[in-house]
Each structure stands twice: as structure tokens, then as C-alpha cells.
């Protein structure tokens, strides 16, 4: 119980709560353990629940009309997800899947609303979180329609650096191993296309592979590659 209370106290939206309030909340939230690859919810799930990730890592994704999977976010431990239920849209169009074994606490929408009324600081935390996440979701959806594979791969690596990157002496290291198949699922393409695009990124010097882990020596240069595909698309649209 002490470990679970400690993990709940590290969830970003619960930071304003006192230890006593965290302990009280602990008794109200059911938990669920997910194995690697297990789905937590799908678009068919109509319940208005939110989730707090205590341990592990969760992928939030949607499917495109042609059946490809597009990753919208990689959720790290210590934050809320499933926030679309706050807007009355339930979990519209979204899937969540455990990238690694994960522990999740479940909260009903009405319980969160009650908590926000009692502790308005929690509501401010949620507002900031949702604003930033909406921006990232919109960016990911634009990537799917406006960028080529090379630039989409650069974009997802930038997102991985932002979510889990560790500063190293020569840039950033992404501590988790992501296979080309997994990266392909994140950007809506196949493993072969990722392998070709990754080779180009290595030739450009913006990504390195050492002992199966990705290193980004120059994040700004990688962000430039990410933006280049969109600029190309816009230029093509302006041509007669």
C-alpha cells in the first residue's frame, strides 16, 4: 500500500494533494495491471473513465482509413491519460496499448470532477496538461497527412526524445529499444520503409544507433528534418 501511495503522489495532476488526501484517494481507485502488448481500451469502450499511469509505458494511437496505426502519444509513468472522456467524447477513435508491463489506476469522470471541486489546483494541472497534449495530437495528425516517411520518422524520434530522452555528453539517448517494426506502427508505415528512412537519418548525422539504442547528437537538426517534409508538401501545393 505504501508503494502505491508513493506512486500516486508522483502523478502530475495529484501534486497539489497532501499525503493524507493521497492516502484517502488510494482507497477509492481500482488498479489494473497490463502485460506488454495488452490493450487497455478501444474505440468501442464507451465508459467515461480516466487513467493514471503508475508504472510502465502506454501508447495512444488511432487507425487511419487505410488501416495504418498512427501513434498520437507515448505516455510515461506519472501522468493522466484517457482525457477525451472529459470532453464528453468518451474515448472516441483512440486505442491504448501497453508498450511494457504497466500498472494503471482507474478514475470515473464524476470522481475526478468531485476532486477538482474540492481541490481547484488539480483542475489547473489538468488544464495545462490537456492543452499541451492537444497540441501534440494535432501535430501527429498533421504528420500523417503532410510528411513523407523520412520526416515522419524524424518527428516520432523527436517525440521519443521529449518523452523519455536522457541527456548524454553528445546529445540525447533514448533508453528503451524500439524496433523498426514498432517505429513503423507509430508512424503508419512498414518495417522496410522505416529501415530505409532510418538509414537516411544516419547518413544525415542526426541519429546514431549504438548497441540497439538510438542517440540524437543534435536535436535541433533532427527537428529541422522533421519540419522539412511539411515544407516540401506546402511547396508542392503552391505549384500550379
Q: What can you tell me about this protein's structure?
A:
The protein is built from eight helices and ten strands. It is of the alpha+beta class and 240 residues long. α5 (149-164) crosses α7 and α5 runs antiparallel to α8. It is globular. The strands form two sheets. Strands 1, 2, 3, 4, 5 and 6 form a six-stranded antiparallel beta sheet that branches. The chain has a four-stranded antiparallel beta sheet with strand order 7-8-10-9, covered by helices on one side. It is 46% helix and 25% strand. It starts with a helix and ends with a helix. Mean pLDDT is 81; it is low at 230-240.
The averaged pLDDT comes out at 81
Largest sheet: 6 strands, antiparallel
What is the CATH third-level topology name of the largest domain?
Answer: Jelly Rolls
Percent of residues in β-strands? 25-35%
Count of DSSP H/I helices: 8
Q: How would you describe the shape?
A: globular
- CATH homolog superfamily of the largest domain: Jelly Rolls
CATH architecture of the largest domain: Sandwich
Uncertain ranges: 230-240
Q: Radius of gyration in whole Å, from Cα?
A: 19 Å
How many beta-strand runs? 10
Q: How much helix, percentage-wise, in residues?
A: 40-55%
Termini separation: 65 Å
Secondary-structure content class: alpha+beta
The count of domains is 2
